Amino acid sequence: MEILVFGFGALCCGGILGGLLARFASPRAAMIGGLALAVAAAVSLLIGAGQQGWDGMGYTIVGALLLAPMALATTAVGALAWFGRRRARAAARRATDPERR
Question: Helix, strand, or coil here: 74?
Answer without folding.
Answer: helix
